[in-house]
Amino acid sequence: MYTQSFNVPDSPGAKTVALAPSSEDPALQAAFDARIDADGRIEPQDWMPEAYRKTLVRQISQHAHSEIVGMLPEGNWISRAPSLKRKAILIAKVQDEGGHGLYLYSAAETLGTSRDQMLEGLHSGRAKYSSIFNYPTLTWADVGVIGWLVDGAAIMNQVPLCRCSYGPYARAMVRVCKEESFHQRQGYEALLVMMTGTAEQKAMVQDAVNRWWWKCLAMFGPPDADSPNSAQGMRWGIKRVSNDELRQKFVDATVPQAKVLGVTLPDPDLKWNEERGHHDYGQIDWNEFWETVNGNGPCNKERLATRVKAHNEGQWVRDAALAHAAKKQARSIKEAA
Ligand SMILES: [Fe+2]
Ligand SMILES: [Fe+2]
Predict the structure, then answer these.
(1) Distance in angstroms (rounded) separating the CA atoms of residues 182 and 216
(2) What pLDDT, on a 0 to 100 scale, did the predictor assign at position 24?
(3) How far is Cα 337 from Cα 334, in angstroms, rounded to an integer?
(4) Quick one: DSSP state of residue 42?
(5) Nearest bound ligand to the CA of residue 129
(6) If pLDDT is split at 50, 70 and 90, which confidence band does 227 have?
(7) Percent helix, strand and coil across the chain, each rounded to 5?
(8) Which residues on adjacent β-strands are paired with residue 272?
(9) What residue spans of 110-162 are helical by DSSP H?
(10) Nearest ligand, measured from the Cα of 176
(11) What is the whole-number distance in angstroms between the Cα of residue 125 and the centre of ligand 1?
């Protein structure tokens, strides 16, 4: 719906293709607004305001990059996992993240951007990805804590995206969230086992929690008062729940889990507030957050270099796949003739 047909004069027989027009048109804008107000879905062939399209391309591609770069901090533990079982679980999880990246790149492509453009943005350092992946994974406990807290925070962020107004993004998120749930549980379970172990193992878990806790709170983004774009995202049905609300939900859900696990969350101000019916928590270091977002975190350069190297080393695979596809196509044309 809301598409126009354009003639393509250069093509033989002036083939007609359907394209969503990009021109400003009050009637198209009104139809778009009505669809959003009715909580309907916008699909790739539908007309959409340019700003909506741009916002989604940025958000979905950043999300895809985060999945792909997110494979790196844990990927370097695959060869050092403490047992065959843990190795198999970790390989499956890291592979899932790669799959999430691919669904999301595909969803972004439906908005008129290309995979090459998006990858160029990532590899040149122009595009952002979640800054949580710019911190090192120092011990095996980090792998458990990433599953429990980082994937746990990701779930909080991503479940509302299953109701995002842009159809391909919303649909991709359904499967992503199911897999994230497995990631969270495997991490928590790995930590539960470590917490029944030696004093050294318990200390390792506590140390990892201390290092990751605040960074996970920052994953939800700046406070609502400092997020000027959030209101527009909410209006468009892209963002459903505010940063602060999501952060609060995460804190409230995590405190009892920490208790069961037997670890302390490193925040002296963390306490139940009877009146609010929520936990109060301390101040997040936003300077550190912005430093990392802007490329100065402990692992930004290392992550980007690893990613670019992997991409370059995979060139022969892409070349071979294209050559194979071309050969196959040539063969089927010959057979048809
Ligand atoms: Fe993921
Ligand atoms: Fe995950």
Answers:
(1) 18
(2) 73
(3) 5
(4) B
(5) 1
(6) confident
(7) 65, 5, 30
(8) 279
(9) 115-123, 140-145, 151-158
(10) 1
(11) 21
